[in-house]
Amino acid sequence: MVMQEPEEIPDEGHERIVERVAAIDVAKVSGKVCTRTPHPQGGSRRVTKVWEVTATLAAVEELGDHLMREQIQAVTLESTGDYWRIWFYVLEERGLRVQLVNARDVKHAPGRPKTDRLDAVWLAKLTEKGLVRPSFVPPHEIRALRDYTRMRIDLIHERTRYWQRLEKLLEDALIKISSVSSTLNTLSTRAMLQALIAGERDPRLLAELAKGRLRVKIPALTEALNGRFDDHHGELAGLLLAQIDGLDAQIARLTARIEALITDMPDVRPAELNSDAHPDKAASSAMDTVARLDEIPGISPEVAQVILAEIGLDMTRFPTAGHLASWAKLSPQTIQSGTRSRGAAVGKGNPYLKGVLGTAAVVAGRTDTFLGERYRRIAKRRGRLRAVVAVGRSIMVIIWHLLSDPHARYRDLGSDYFLTKIDREKKARTHIRQLQALGFTVALTPAT
């Protein structure tokens, strides 16, 4: 290969993007603060100051006032555990532009001494050169909503664990009711469990408590309820059911609070609609957004609430749908080395967001819709796990468009989209090659 002519690239290393910056190396008890500002005598010289600030509300408020007097343009924090929160929240309230960055993205060059003082200076230098990539931190009202939705998800998982413990207890008592009823959380099974706890042991009488479609299984229920359920099983089962009832009440309380927060949430008006050119276009309310997201196959109002709590209503932080999908770790990655390229894992991402999107993708895969057909086509070729990620990304792209335009509505393309929009000649060539590989000679005759 002939060597190319070298091309000179102008050295712009001396050009600073941000003149007055601050950086904080965060720890549990305190933080090292570094500021870099222009020298009073002018020129290219810089003034670097480093000091320690205690991680208390009064001390951080005093720091915020000092940084405002110094006319600091940007403050950068490392996302160290949850210790960054007091610094971010208080400095943000003071009117400073605060950036939260992943510590992995701003790691110091290897082989250099590592101290909190040097880390703060290094972070400040990266900030003034514009080499930091801020993490997404939603506004206060979205953070409050997110705390409620995450707590609800955690309590739902905890309730599931208690049901599993109850099923394990019944197995220990040789009660096989879960083999007959698909779930223990029904009126019929709950009545049987309450009767067992109250002291009833006759399997025939217990089976007669079945209601609805479960009554056709009374003979099987009679056999399943013939076990060795004693008093200690009854006491433990009562405790587990009490825990489940308590969690049900807490989940219902959280759901009501989430709905109230979404109802009271201020409207969001996209930046492109703020001008006088669109006086007839109103802002989008959170309740209206939840209703529009609910139209997407696989998404329920509860899932829509979680999505809004995790990504917010303002999509200006994500210039394109691809940026949002990449932030959610739903975009395919490629690792290139020389002439070889291979795929890579999409990454962990936000577990709460990816969890509900995965659930929505699986539910959408059971529907006779565009997303359902897309799920089935990918699952057939690449497996269900890849299909979940691909459909989850498609849902994320749809969500971005709906949030970016307050008047957009979801319109399903239909499950026959892949059949009506494909290249007929290309599809025919594909089938011909497959038949020829099996040893057939193919001659096409157009249908009349």
Order of helices and strands: EEEHEHEHHHHHHHHHEEHHHHH
Mean pLDDT across the residues is 88
Amount of helix:
40-55%
Percent in strands: 5-15%
Rounded to the nearest angstrom, the distance between the terminal CA atoms is 56 Å
Write down how many β-strands occur, each being a DSSP E stretch of 2 or more residues: 7
Low-confidence segments = 271-281
Rg is: 30 Å
Domain count, please report it.
3
Domain Transposase IS110-like N-terminal: 23-172
GO molecular function: DNA binding; transposase activity
InterPro entries: Transp_IS110-like_N, Transpos_IS110, Transposase_20
Protein name: IS110 family transposase
Give structural notes.
Helix 1 crosses helix 2 and helix 5 packs across helix 8. The protein contains 16 helices and 7 strands. Strands 3-2-1-4-5 form a 5-stranded mixed β-sheet, with helices on both faces. It has a two-stranded antiparallel ribbon with strand order 6-7. The two termini are 56 Å apart. With 448 residues, it is an alpha/beta fold. The chain has 3 domains: 108 residues, Nucleotidyltransferase, domain 5; 118 residues, Helix Hairpins; 157 residues, no CATH class. The protein is 49% helix and 10% strand.
